[in-house]
Each structure stands twice: as structure tokens, then as C-alpha cells.
Design a protein that fits this description.
about 300 residues, alpha/beta, 2 domains, 9-stranded mixed sheet, globular
């Protein structure tokens, strides 16, 4: 059976999320709602859905999301029973009516392929629920990391994970959980393949209240981006081709070059180059910094 985990905090768009669950053509799922001590209590709204789908509501005694969103995700997962697969659905995202139906239509193929991560097609919506992007589709079988180099997009809600992998590996706690979901996809898939289902869509809401849509917390997002690429280059380099590694180093270096007040970025990058005996690459890194600095001075 499929578990749909909802780490709840915002009431603003929650009804649309619940309505999309009630409209599922296949009811073989159970919803687990973990309330992060929200000031917006959803109980009255939830009462309207008591007979529309199977769900469990749990209100935690303390707010954890403000400290660590990944830890909030993990404690919500612990509410679930013995379902083999789980989806972590944002409290403002919306599922097409046939998401669960398509999950079960494809699960045999997924098992035959030995895949641990399933991805649905996705599309962005705004605060009014209007579509604001194309439909993002993928090849049925694709390397988990491929979208990173295709410069596509990804969000936690569009994935279904094998629960055993989630419990064994867990989420990396980057600031704001920014890039934590991306790394989770890679690691839960063991840097192998993802099975994509393009016959149904997860609608991802981008609004001023979402982390993705907000202009706030810029420094934390920069920190998270650096930690993500640093982690990949330092710990997972064997999972990438030579060309992919070159691109990852380029993005990591840019984290410092574009944010030169982040001195710790420079020291960590430098230390890594020396530990890996990559002196030639380090010299190129220093030259890029010098060129960038010179260019900025000319522009001034």
C-alpha cells in the first residue's frame, strides 16, 4: 500500500491538497498528516474529509520545522504504518486525480526493474492554482542525477520512495532543507535509476509563502547550495562521469566566486583540492577568482 505523508503547517492551500486526495480514482492509499504545531489548526477542515479517504492526523507538541525541516519530514514518516512506498506531499501541492491509479498500474514494472524511486510528471501552479509552466516529463528509466545536468526541475512532492531506503539513509540536513530533497532522490535511488510516470501530474505550488517562491533567506539558500555541491564532489565523486564532475566543480567554485564574503567556502574548497592532490585544478580555481575580481573592478 502507498503512504502519503503530509508535513503540515500552512492552511492557505491545504483544502486544495485534500480535495485532490479525495478525488483520487484509486483509494488504495493512506494519508498521514503531521502538524508541526501550526497556529492554523486544520481539524475543522479535516472533519469534512473523514469519509472521503483514509487518514491519520497527529499534532506534534513542539515546532520542529523552524529548526530543521528534514527532521520534521522524518518524524512525520514515523507516524506511518507498514506501507512499503511513501510520498511526501507538500501541504500546498496538488495531485492529478489518477496519481494513485498510475502508481499501481506501474508498480510491477518498477519492482521488475529493482528501482527504489518513482517520479511523476510535474507542473508549476501559482497562488490561484493557475498553471505557470510546461509539463516536466522524463524518460521512463533515467539516472537519478540526470535532471541536475539537464537543468530541469525537481521537488519532493513528485516522488514516491521505497520506505526501507528512506528509513535506512534519511535526509541530509541542509539549511531550509534546500537541496535536501534533491540529494534524497539521488541517495534513495543509490545513484542508480529512477522510474518516471508521465501519465499523471503533480502540481507544485510556487507562492510567496513557499521556500521556493520566497525571496527571503537568501544567505541560507546560498549556504545550502554550497553544502550540496561540496557533499557531492567530496563524497560521491565516483557516481559521476568525468564531464559531470567537471560541471559539479564548476558549480561549487561559483558558490564562492559569486559570494566572496563567504570565506569558509574558499577554505573548504581549497582544502579539498589539496587533499585530493588536484593542484592543477586548484590553480585554475584561483585564476577564475582573479579574473572575476578584475572584471568587477573594470565594471566599477
Amino acid at each position: 500500500m502507498l503512504a502519503i505523508i503530509i508535513p503540515y503547517y500552512k492552511l492557505s492551500f491545504f483544502e486544495a491538497t485534500l480535495e485532490s486526495l479525495a478525488n483520487q480514482t484509486d483509494k488504495r492509499f493512506k494519508v498521514y498528516i503531521g502538524d508541526d504545531t501550526s497556529p492554523e489548526n486544520p481539524v475543522v477542515l479535516l472533519e469534512r474529509y473523514n469519509d472521503k479517504f483514509n487518514f491519520v492526523y497527529h499534532r506534534f507538541k513542539n515546532n520542529l520545522g523552524a529548526i530543521s525541516l528534514t527532521q520534521q519530514w522524518e518524524r512525520c514518516i514515523k507516524i506511518a504504518a507498514n506501507e512499503e512506498w511513501l510520498m511526501i506531499l507538500g501541504d500546498d501541492d496538488v495531485l492529478a486525480n489518477n496519481i494513485v491509479e498510475e502508481f499501481y498500474s506501474n508498480i510491477q514494472k518498477v519492482e521488475q526493474k529493482g528501482v527504489n524511486v518513482i517520479r511523476f510528471a510535474s507542473q508549476k501552479i501559482d497562488e490561484q492554482g493557475k498553471v505557470t509552466s510546461k509539463i516536466y516529463e522524463h524518460h521512463t528509466i533515467e539516472r537519478a542525477v540526470q535532471f541536475l545536468f539537464d537543468k530541469s526541475r525537481s521537488s519532493l512532492s513528485e516522488y514516491v520512495f521505497r520506505k526501507s531506503e528512506v528509513l535506512e539513509i534519511g535526509f541530509k540536513n541542509f539549511p531550509l532543507a534546500w537541496y535536501s530533497d534533491v540529494l534524497a532522490v539521488f541517495e534513495f535511488a543509490n545513484f542508480d535509476n529512477v522510474f518516471s510516470i508521465n501519465n499523471s501530474i503533480v502540481y507544485v505550488r510556487i507562492s510567496q509563502w513557499s521556500i521556493s517562491g520566497s525571496a527571503r533567506d537568501k544567505e541560507q539558500k546560498i549556504q545550502a547550495k554550497f553544502e550540496f555541491y561540496y557533499y557531492l564532489v567530496k563524497n560521491k565523486h565516483s557516481c559521476f562521469s568525468e564531464m559531470e564532475l567537471k560541471e559539479l566543480y564548476h558549480r561549487l567554485n561559483k558558490c564562492y566566486i559569486n559570494n566572496k564574503k563567504q570565506y569558509m567556502f574558499f577554505f573548504k574548497i581549497s582544502k579539498m583540492y589539496f587533499q585530493k592532490l588536484q593542484f592543477k585544478e586548484y590553480i585554475l580555481f584561483i585564476k577564475k577568482i582573479m579574473c572575476f575580481t578584475k572584471k568587477n573592478r573594470i565594471n566599477l
